Hints:
The complex is a heterodimer of chains A (349) and B (180). Chain A is mainly α and 349 residues long.
Amino acid sequence: MQVMTDLFARIFGDGLSPVGLLVAGGLTMALIMALVMASCAIVFTWAERKVAGFIQSRYGPMRVGRWHGVLQPVADMVKILGKEDIVPRDADKPLFLLAPFVIFIGSLMAWAAIPFAPGFIAADLDLGLFYIFAVSSAATIGILMAGWASNNKWSLYGAARGAAQAVSYEIPLALACIPVVMITGSLNMNDIVVAQQGGIWRWHFLHDPFLFVAFLLYFVASIAEVNRGPFDLPETESELVAGYHTEYTGMRFAFFFLAEYANLFLVSCVATAVFLGGWQPLFGPVFLPGLVFVIKAVLLVLLQMWLRWTLPRLRVDQLMHVCWKVMVPLALVCVLGAGIWMLATGQAG
Amino acid sequence: MSGDLVFYGFALLTVLSGFFVVASRNVVHAAFSLLFTLFGVAGLYAQLGADFLAVTQTVVYIGGILVLVVFAVMMTRIPRSDAPRRGLDRAVPAAILALLSFALIYMVIVGARWPERATGAPEATVAEIGTGLMTRFVFPFEYASLVLLAAMVGAAILIRERAPQEDDGGDDGDATEVQP
């Protein structure tokens, strides 16, 4: 946000009071983040269909926009905007109308603490990492709200699964990040990235064996956290129609879609910043930091898509088993192991 | 000045949604409006410079306890919201209790000696809280963990009692059954 307030200060000179600068900078940053979310949805829906097509030996969208159907998302967007906004007769109307926005805002708030480049961060919070986990947990309420308000048993099943899954996988997700916090001694996202300066060998996921395992745990838990395959039980189209957003149409459905793809990119951005060196390049001096950051995050997103279209879906009991009996204990071992490693190599303060 | 505006914004959000929690006749609506109450309180903490408290409030109350409350409310039988209102037989004791708790809180607020400090940008609180938890408050911290552990074991035992019969008759066999 500092970047934006500086920019406004330069444009308007003394015309804006500090409060005005803060408000203007904040609003611009929020707008940029909303645009980032929207472009996630646009780019990744196309990418997902191409990846799925590639894995299933077919083409995917090919017609709209001449080259490999690049304009397909635009056509989809126009279509979705033109759809009728339906509220089921027996739905709980106020909650039904509110739910998409709760989910969207929960996601948008988390974007505030993502460090895209040196200084380019909407809110440089001391508690950045903790804050991201906190506000993204608020989206769970939105899922429950949508499932309940739809007054449809499939929606409610989907919502209950989604909430249970999100609440469970939050734990290994956060635990996997703790070793990194121990090493950096900070929850500030900027500090975490700066601590990984100096090439790939300084990135946190190669810091020690425990951190490598922690990175894998984070990656698996993050797929589950955004409810995607092979952990897409809340949406299982073969059993639940489409899960908690079954009853939504048009723009409201688009908000769910937007939040899903934005969250997909968000967890990849957090993984990039925490484990993969953030904007730091593979070697050499910092070069086009924003681009480096986005490339790393997009590669992680593509990896998640690859897994989604390759692996079969888990059962509910397997899902809970993997989380509570495998990943949580492993994450705790990682925390302990990283601590011992720090003591043994003399890094502990 | 702008700080005041932020304060009144969050305070209004907290009080209004808090009122709705109590006044709503639909128990699910009441549970969901707690979201805004808790969020408003987190905002007030943040505005007071207690950033760690604000984020913890969000994680624990919105991400954890509220989800639990909503689950519990959704899974139980929901009273019809158009049922006739009860008489005043419960309103009077409730009002007395509310007044008494308000008096208690008021006395605490007025009687407390608030340490004053210079205003300015609030400093980071995490490191201090972490050090405090690991040194001066390590025993209270561990006691709280013990209480939570006991609650968890208790909950597990409550569920466990019926589990063996279900396991015998269940057809949710292991994945090993389906070998090619």
